[in-house]
Design the sequence.
């Protein structure tokens, strides 16, 4: 599963001037910065038009499943969230730059999609330092009010999920470089849309509402 080839400066969380070269080299041929042609299904009542940078037709690409525990110790899987839209992203709760900005953007998406029943699933990219407490602090500062889960674990549990969603993670002294992407999964568990950050909360909210909670 790949997002389209876009400007690497938007595709990656560049916390250092040389971060782009490192992450692109690490993920050449498979990650967020590499290619999958944008697929836009023909507009019809059965295939709602979405506004994401990448869209997939219903049933074309099942979302890679995961089984991870959240900040409350609850086991979360995509199967357990079936029946409503799921937004999946990858963040560092201790980040002070791009991640908090995305967090506030996601809070805006939540406010716009209250009626949809959408759930936010954040997969940690910092197994070395993320904790339930740091996740709750991040969510509080970002202003999250909807249904959200910060999925935690050791690197051995998280890394396969990063790879499945083409998220490159590079630990450096005092920092973590990572791809930044958001995925929208429909009520059937299929990938329907992908967004590179910075994304518009209005665009994401539009797509969530278009998919709704229908099965």
Sequence:
């Amino acid at each position: 599963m790949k997002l389209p080839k876009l400007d690497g400066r938007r595709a990656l969380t560049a916390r250092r001037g040389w971060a782009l070269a490192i992450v692109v080299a690490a993920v050449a041929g498979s990650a967020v910065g590499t290619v999958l042609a944008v697929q836009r299904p023909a507009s019809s009542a059965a295939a709602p038009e979405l506004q994401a940078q990448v869209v997939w037709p219903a049933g074309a690409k099942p979302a890679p499943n995961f089984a991870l525990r959240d900040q409350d110790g609850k086991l979360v899987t995509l199967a357990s969230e079936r029946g409503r839209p799921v937004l999946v992203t990858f963040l560092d709760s201790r980040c002070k730059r791009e991640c908090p900005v995305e967090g506030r953007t996601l809070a805006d998406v939540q406010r716009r999609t209250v009626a949809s029943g959408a759930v936010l699933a954040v997969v940690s990219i910092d197994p070395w330092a993320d904790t339930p407490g740091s996740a709750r602090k991040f969510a509080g500062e970002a202003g999250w009010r909807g249904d959200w889960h910060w999925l935690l674990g050791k690197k051995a549990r998280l890394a396969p999920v990063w790879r499945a969603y083409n998220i490159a993670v590079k630990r450096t002294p005092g920092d973590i470089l990572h791809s930044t992407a958001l995925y929208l999964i429909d009520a059937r568990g299929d990938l329907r849309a992908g967004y590179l950050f910075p994304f518009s909360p209005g665009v994401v909210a539009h797509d969530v509402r278009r998919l709704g909670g229908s099965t």
User: Anything to note?
Assistant: The chain has six helices and eleven strands.
